[in-house]
Design brief:
The protein has 363 residues and is an all-alpha fold. The chain has two domains: 220 residues, Orthogonal Bundle (Citrate Synthase, domain 1), CATH 1.10.580.10; 101 residues, Cytochrome p450-Terp, domain 2. It has 16 helices and three strands. The structure holds acetyl coenzyme *A and oxaloacetate ion. The site of acetyl coenzyme *A has 19 residues, from helix 15. Belongs to the citrate synthase family. This is Citrate synthase. Keywords: Transferase.
């Protein structure tokens, strides 16, 4: 008999935060289409919406933005930790460690909006600090007059970012913020359900996020596109890969059995930014070819490009190095994790599913 794996179709919680409709290809955040929010609103406004249930009015937005801006600075103890973690440790491991270190202080059960703001604000600063340190560059302090997205790019590069890059990255961050009971969100809710603290729950989520089947996929997408190299190599490369039984990174989804609306939206955003770029042209060609060949090799499985495929394109278009792809996704998803943890605390009961023993009995 086939082993039970993967919890397909199991409902782990009711949620007011988002609807992921895998049949229609719809993603709704608290009653709004995520793709509309991505192009019409700023990071701060959608973060407020996800954690509070309503879009902010002007005064609420100003206060929330101020709170986020004032929480960006790294405590000295955290800087010392970032300085001594071995250089070769990937940024996701560093993030996981750094967030776990916040545990205690204000980070005690129950989770609060103040804690959510602190972690959301500090995460990009940790990423930028560590990225620049690892690359032998001087650390850039946050700039209070810049919004969350622009400040992230500024802390990475030391330059004021182009408005088109801020807009495109903002759209990606909003589309990456929240996605129902995905693996990292589930991991965070399980940890919190023991009445552990928000920092520990988010540290666990980061550990789940970095796997190549989840948030680690965009780095692999770049590797795939680099290996394919040109349009004429796409079909033979993909066929060979599928014949070996490999998975194509950036394709397939547990819930979407039609197009992932985020991939569609991100393709449009990237096209507006770099429509004539040969690399983007190759990505679009690879997407079409892969979808056709996946239908041939895996009939009836309904495999399409997922958010990670065009996340890779957008991050490449704004010149983010590949080592920052998954950390940047994390800087988006921290909002969804926070909203879920606040929701979990309202109805908390420890998660404890069953397993079926299939081993031998004592003789
Ligand atoms: C933000 C995100 O997390 S988005 C997802 C990012 N991850 C990726 O892009 C990695 C590649 N994709 C995958 O590995 C999967 O599609 C997942 C992990 C996203 C979903 O996995 P599951 O829902 O468990 O799909 P499952 O493993 O049951 O696959 C069903 C069938 O489709 C095939 N399949 C699924 N995805 C792919 C893929 N990317 N390439 C080739 N075949 C695939 C499987 O081999 C399986 O075939 P089979 O029925 O012949 O055994
Ligand atoms: O929902 C999932 O399983 C994976 C995903 O797309 C996400 O977390 O954004």
């Amino acid at each position: 008999m086939a082993k039970v794996t993967g919890l397909d179709g199991i409902v782990a919680a009711d949620t007011d935060i988002s609807l992921v409709d895998g049949t229609q290809g719809h993603l709704v955040y608290r009653g709004f289409w995520a793709k509309d929010l991505a192009v019409q609103y700023e990071y701060e406004e959608v973060a407020y919406l996800l954690c509070n249930g309503v879009l902010p009015d002007q005064a609420q937005n100003q206060q929330f933005t101020k709170n986020l801006t004032e929480s960006r600075q790294l405590p000295e103890a955290l800087k010392r930790l970032l300085d001594i973690i071995p250089r070769e440790m990937p940024i996701m491991g560093v993030l996981q460690t750094a967030i776990a270190m916040l545990s205690g202080g204000i980070f005690i059960w129950p989770p609060t909006k103040e804690q959510a703001i602190r972690i959301t604000a500090i995460l990009p600063t940790i990423i930028a600090y560590r990225y620049r340190m690892q690359n032998g560059l001087s650390v850039i302090e946050p700039k209070p007059e810049l919004g969350h997205t622009a400040n992230f790019l500024y802390m990475l590069t030391g330059e004021l970012p182009k408005p088109a890059h801020v807009k495109a990255l903002g759209a990606y961050l909003i589309l990456g913020m929240e996605h129902g009971m995905n693996a990292s969100t589930f991991a965070s809710r399980v940890v919190l359900s023991t009445q552990s603290d928000m920092a520990s729950a988010i540290s666990a989520a980061i550990g789940a996020m970095k796997g190549p089947l989840h948030g680690g996929a965009p780095t692999e997408v770049i590797a795939m596109l680099d290996a394919i190299g040109s349009k004429e190599h796409a079909e033979p490369w993909i066929r060979e890969s599928l014949e070996r039984g490999d998975r194509l990174m950036g394709f397939g989804h547990r819930i979407y059995k039609t197009k992932d609306p985020r991939a569609e939206a991100l393709r449009e955003v990237t096209e507006a930014l770099s429509g004539n770029d040969p690399w983007f042209d190759l990505a679009v060609h690879v997407e079409k070819t892969a979808v056709r060949l996946l239908a041939e090799y895996k009939p009836g499985r309904h495999l399409y490009a997922n958010v990670e495929f065009f996340a890779a394109s957008i991050m490449r278009a704004i010149a983010l190095p590949t080592e920052l792809f998954t950390p940047t996704f994390t800087a988006a998803r921290v909002v969804g994790w926070s909203a879920h943890l606040l929701e979990q605390a309202e109805v908390n009961r420890i998660f404890r599913p069953q397993s079926v023993y299939t081993g031998p009995m004592p003789g």
